[in-house]
Design brief:
This protein has 663 residues and is of the alpha/beta class. The chain has helices at 29-34, 36-41, 70-74, 121-124, 197-214, 272-291, 321-331, 334-342, 344-357, 366-374, 394-421, 423-437, 461-469, 532-539, 548-551, 558-574, 579-629, 640-647, 654-661; strands at residues 2-3, 88-98, 132-135, 162-164, 170-173, 180-182, 215-216, 235-236, 264-268, 303-304, 454-459, 487-495, 506-512, 515-516, 530-531. The strands form 4 sheets. Strands 2, 9, 10, 11, 12, 13, 14 and 15 form an 8-stranded mixed β-sheet that branches. It is globular and about 95 Å long.
């Protein structure tokens, strides 16, 4: 089966106490199943397709930025250019997003939150109306021999859909519409890590932000939108070919529909939440154009992905062992050990977890537990139910510790882990950009396709945070987690007049969740635009595929590793009460055991030497007997001396033979 593209029909919904309903389409369910052409004509382009979702984010007075509430998402609009004196033209945008709000990424027993988490119907059962519509694979039109302008056979449009539901293991439903339980890992009808309706809304907002910033649509473009400035128009919809003034080499293809390659390149890893987040964003971005697709065709957007286990949208230590080694080096460093063992932050968090929540160790997934709970209006434990945004409550103390603990490797040692881990993704990103800003040295790829106007990468928090960490010390503090539906843009602007600030003729602007970060990069002044050479210099030294040269693990020798372990154990032992006496006792015991082992080994060695000497004597007797009879004309060898030696048992003790046969 293949997913119908664009997946306007994909959706997932947290249905904590709501009845089942279609998620993305406003059309009745029977209309969806009966006519795929009607789908593209009946899409509700209302930016709020779920009016009942207005009831969300009402349980708590305050929500952390991580949740990306509608109010928070509104703050992330892409700002217009502030410098009105420079003549530039936007020619390319790379956008990287984190998926929207989701369910927990794992289940019991590995996903340990707090006592009673999985036993409570409120936090331990996750129900969703997963309405994913799938189409059968397209078939080639053979009968009519219909071809495109290049003579390629066209694909047959799918004429029916499948509706996928995660309810096969449904076990019971309580009377009165209570919680639904099933044999799935999250005990309901949700997948692990599934995008929720809130996440759908968040990515729809991201699509809206991109459209308002980069699409000019005449009177429909408000004066406050970035696209009101001609310099920011990636597409001018008032022109037949959507063209923009530029001297750059060909970017995209004005003869193609704007959501088709090479105008758009869509990349995601093969996870439900990332695939759908990107698809929903594209619906918010290209909604009117998708809806205008004619009755005789289905809009198709190509999605580029790979096997999740070997993909490179996050640091992949399984593919590149050196990546995992760099991460371990960070956690084994004295800097980390000092912080996690002795800092006030760590001691306060551990004490809080033990004294107020009855947990001896801070769970590794505590941040995810807290955020998936509060961001979906579920019940937090009393000890953590104090978030107010001031930074003083238990919730924020634990959350800050969890963030700093997880993100520590990203910036450690100059960001070595992040640079190596994100090298392949940076190579993908820069391969598009370099074809634009340095076309002479970076021609189009082997496919001959020009670089896209918009490149969209749909990934995770563990995509955005290490990417930010590679851009310099000041760009990202390392203490801020990427919220749901976070978005990073790298805008490429062609400089149309001579300006000594931009000797290459191209500039870039870096925007993260609506905030311009360009000036925080080294060698960039306070201006929002910076010469593209700065970005190239910053990332191209490590932008490369995983290979033998950069991924081979630099493992210490066994001797060095063992000596280090012995040293660490000895130091830790001496630092404990009674440690010196314990160490002395261990030394005495080791000496005694060593003496016994030495005696045993020496005894066995002497026995082997004694046997070897006896064997030599036997051999000498044998050879002597042969020498004495070598002139015997009859040829009969006198073996009496040999037989005498054998009968005396020299070297043939039964126990000796059995023992040595085991050596």
């Amino acid at each position: 089966m293949m997913l119908l593209q664009p997946l306007l029909l994909l959706g997932s919904l947290l249905s904590h106490s709501q009845a089942a309903r279609p998620l993305i389409l406003s059309t009745p369910q029977h209309a969806v199943a009966s006519d795929t052409n009607a789908i593209s004509q009946s899409i509700n382009l209302d930016p709020d397709p779920f009016p009942e979702e207005d009831k969300t984010y009402t349980k708590y007075e305050h929500y952390p930025p991580y949740c990306s509430t509608p109010q928070e998402m509104e703050k992330r609009a892409i700002p217009p250019l502030s410098d009105t004196n420079i003549q530039t033209q936007l020619v390319h945008v790379t956008a990287l997003i984190r998926h929207g709000s989701r369910t927990p990424f794992s289940g019991a027993p590995s996903y340990k939150c707090w006592n009673g988490y999985w036993e409570s119907p409120d936090t331990g059962v996750w129900n969703c109306d997963l309405l994913t519509y799938m189409s059968p694979p397209a078939t080639t039109k053979e009968k009519g021999k219909e071809v495109d302008e290049h003579g390629n056979l066209l694909d047959e449009e799918p004429d029916f859909l499948f509706e996928k539901r995660y309810d096969a293991l449904l076990s019971k439903q309580t009377n009165g519409g209570g919680s639904i339980e099933s044999g799935n890992i999250l005990n309901g009808t949700c997948q692990m890590g599934q995008l929720l309706a809130r996440g759908y809304e968040q990515e729809l907002s991201n699509g809206k932000h991109l459209r308002q910033a980069y699409f000019y649509d005449g009177d429909k473009t408000a004066d406050e939108h970035a696209a009101a400035d001609p310099r920011m128009r990636l597409w001018d919809l008032t022109k037949d070919d959507n063209s923009i003034p530029s001297h750059a080499s060909q970017i995209g293809d004005p003869t193609k529909v704007i959501f088709q390659e090479p105008n758009l390149k869509y990349r995601a890893d093969d996870e439900q939440r990332t695939l759908m987040s990107g698809q929903v964003l594209l619906r918010g971005l290209f909604g009117p154009e998708l809806a205008a697709t004619g009755d005789d065709e289905t809009a198709v957007i190509k999605l580029h992905t790979a096997d999740y286990t070997v993909d490179v949208l996050t640091p992949n230590g399984k593919v590149c062992p050196r990546v995992e080694e760099l991460r371990n080096e960070a956690y084994e460093s004295e800097e980390y050990k000092s912080w996690v063992q002795s800092s006030i932050e760590a001691k306060t968090t551990k004490s809080l977890m033990k004294d107020e929540m009855g947990i001896d160790e801070v769970p590794e997934v505590i941040l995810d537990c807290m955020m998936t709970t509060i961001c979906t209006d579920r019940n937090l434990p009393d000890a953590l139910n104090d978030y107010d945004g001031t930074g003083g409550g238990n919730f924020e103390v634990v959350a800050d510790f969890a963030v700093n603990n997880f993100t520590f490797p990203y910036k450690y040692n100059g960001g070595a882990y992040s640079k190596l881990g994100m090298g392949p993704l940076w190579l993908e990103i820069m391969s598009n950009i370099l074809q634009i800003v340095d076309a002479n040295h970076h021609p189009p790829t082997s496919s001959g396709m020009p670089p896209p106007k918009l490149a969209l990468f749909s990934g995770h928090d563990t995509t955005l945070m290490p990417i930010l960490a590679t851009l310099g010390e000041q760009v990202w503090s390392g203490k801020e987690w990427s919220p749901y539906a976070s978005m990073l843009q790298i805008e490429i602007h062609e400089v149309l007049d001579t300006d000594e600030r931009y000797p290459s003729g191209y500039a870039f602007r870096l925007i993260y969740n609506g905030n311009v970060l360009t000036s925080k990069m080294e060698e960039c002044s306070a201006a929002e635009l910076c010469d593209i050479q700065v970005l190239v210099k910053q990332v191209m030294s490590f932008a490369s595929e995983y290979g033998d040269e950069n991924c081979a693990a630099m493992v210490k020798s066994t001797r060095e590793s063992k000596m280090g372990e012995i040293k660490d154990v000895t130091v830790n032992l001496l630092s404990t009460p009674g440690g010196a006496m314990t160490l002395l006792l261990l030394v005495v015991i080791s000496m005694a055991l060593g003496s016994v082992a030495t005696c045993f080994i020496m005894r066995r060695r002497l026995r082997r030497e004694y046997k070897y000497a006896d064997t030599l004597a036997l051999t000498e007797l044998s050879m002597s007997a042969l020498d004495d009879d070598e002139n015997d004309i009859s040829g009969n060898v006198d073996r009496s001396r040999i037989e005498s030696a054998v009968s005396s048992g020299i070297g043939l003790d039964e126990n000796t033979i059995d023992e040595n046969s085991l050596i």
